[in-house]
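Lab meeting notes turned into a lecture example. A postdoc, R.K., suggested we walk through two folding results consecutively so the class can see how the record format repeats. The first protein's sequence and structure tokens come next.
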Amino acid sequence: MTDHYDARETRDPAQREAELFARLPDVLRRAVAAPAYADRLRGVDPATITSRAALARLPVLRKSELPALHKAAPPFGGFVAGPPGSFARLFTSPGPIFEPEAAQGDAWRGARALFAAGFRPGDVVLNTFSYHLTPGGFIFDTSARALGCAVIPAGPGNTEQQFELIEAYRPIGYSGTPDFLKILLDAAASAGRDVSSIKRALVSGAAFPKSLQEEIKSRGIEAYQAFGTADLGMVAFETEARDGMVVNEDLILEIVRPGTGDPVAAGDVGEIVVTSLDPHHPWIRLALGDLTAALPGLSPCGRTNMRIKGWMGRADQTTKVKGMFVRPEQIAEIGKRHPELGRLRLVVTRSGETDVMTLKAEAASASAALQSELTTTLRTVTKLGGNVELVGAGGLPNDGKVIADERS
């Protein structure tokens, strides 16, 4: 059995990049057939968007905007050219956000993630993600069936009935949250039920800390993590190398400074922005609100696509100070007005019963004049007064945090 799902996973990185950006102009032409994209991309010549630098000039579409956009122009906010009946299934997620499933096989691009986790054709898979209205269950179900697996559509809960299914069908694989896998194993141990057939798992949808990873492994199950969304399906996945997550094929993933569409420096933490090359339902620079950082070099597993560290927190750090919202976009604007600075971080604390803002800024050369200028800019941009603290280059942590609300 081959170590990789297909030859595309081991392409030369330059070849992959060239092929992605050769396809992008046609995807953009199809995107602007939808009214919302036609408006957002007005004046853009798709033929010129053939590089990451060109793509970075297009506006980002924030996932946090989708509920309002979908409500204003149901069901898909004007971002889909085809009618709802042109899709296979139609879902909703909290917001609400409405998501269609494409009609083709492996619509959510998950088969290669399952393969990387050790799943193989002919395996029986217990899928415990919910099948009710939201796409989670179907993302993993259709992905497993595209790989050639048989799926038990169990959904979450009802452990007693799950034990009956496990003992009858002897699934070798599990897909679901890591939390429910532990619940299932604990309940089986307490009830004396045999779930020993499960040897591997692909988990998502919740944190999977090291302690839980070790506990699951101690019970004879090799569990791997995947990062996906209801909009895009599988974005990145862990491999046997256990060294970050490999970005999925047919996606262009960028990491940008929170509150902007500007790519971060190599290795810096930023917000995940994804462009998908699905001509039926393309996403153009969808900002997910999740933080990550790119890893250098190639994965030891032999896959050559970009690697990310995995989920590192939320990028939407908007907070309210003295009754007014302060947003990451405003901190980014301060940085644009002072390009000589490095990282910026607005720290919000309390003094007595009053909110206090302190802008911490990396500066190669600190001066009273610079501090005074920044104090003025801070007030101009946020409409709030605050303190300014200059630190040396590299003095702020590389964690993607732009606003730190430290009020208890």
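The second example is placed directly after the first for contrast:
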Amino acid sequence: MSTSSATYARDVRATWWYTALSIVFLHVFAVFIWSFVVVLEGTSLEIVLNLVGAVGSVASAVLLLVHYRREPLDDGDDTARRPVWPLVLLGLVSAALMGVSTGSLLVGVGFAAQTLCLVRWRHGIRLRLVVLLLVVIAAVWWVDAARLHPDGYAVSGFALPLFVAMLPPLSATSLWWWDIVRELDRARRAEGRLAAAQERLRLAGDLHDLQGHHLQVIALQLELAEKMMARDPEAAIEQVRAARASVDEARRGTRDLAARFRGVPLPDELANAADLLRAAGLTVDLLVDSAAGGAPADVLGPVVRESTTNVLKHGGGGSASLSLARHGGAWVLTVENDARGAASPVGDGAGLSGIADRVGAVGGTMDATRLGDRFRLTVHVPEGVTA
């Protein structure tokens, strides 16, 4: 996960765009070829009806895909779902206009089925719906063939209806594949969070064992020093010195554990921060340089954690963006979020002074700015620095 979090995120977005654009392209192509037939052979009224239906059908498909992308994967959370039926109604009415203008029942039913296949149905409904729609489309196709070509379907009239008939199941299977990719990505991110949590638990256990051992030894040494103080002051002083040495040893061990904990790669820190903000209900944009694994995690890691806490405490709770890029020989970390009013001036408290001190110690700079209803934190750290 250390070098691939941002890459995986880009791959998932690319998969969505490929899926959505493929569906839209096929939909527009089907609308265009039927509209072309109407323009060549139809009346003025049929051309107008077809134009309105074509525009409405494409608009419905695009809006349904946007809605599909934003819908949560969880089946049981109805409160998080956005209303979709106005978009479905637009698609069905547009399909009816397309069917009337072309004089083909198959066109109307095919585009209506396409609209229904762009809805995120509950688990188990999609497969049954696609099978039912295929049966209906086949029956309508047979009725159209018998009505329009009583002497038999010509080969030239077969390809176009077949394309419209196959469009709904192709769209449904494409979205089903996208759901699989999205579920796998969510599982990958959950696995990363679990691994981080396990590492923290292991660190906590090691710290408990280390401190418990040294504290017990120090307590015994000081107890011996107290008992020896009256009858053997020199021996008591030796026990105090031993206790002080035990304190130094405990301090070194604690520093070693802290250094191991700070070794989390910065791309993972940013991915975990984005997941945390999304879990809090924010819309988050994450942009990470492909070489961010070499950024100074010891310096910027605490900054990421502190700024994430600030967004949760003081942000408006709507949206945020995290970015890490290399520019002009420095790493530039930018955290931006919607502000919750102007109750306090930028820079007062909220851990900003601590961030400024941390990056200033390595020759970096920090800038906190309020831009209208947005708050932006920008940190510059020279390349190659260490904490």
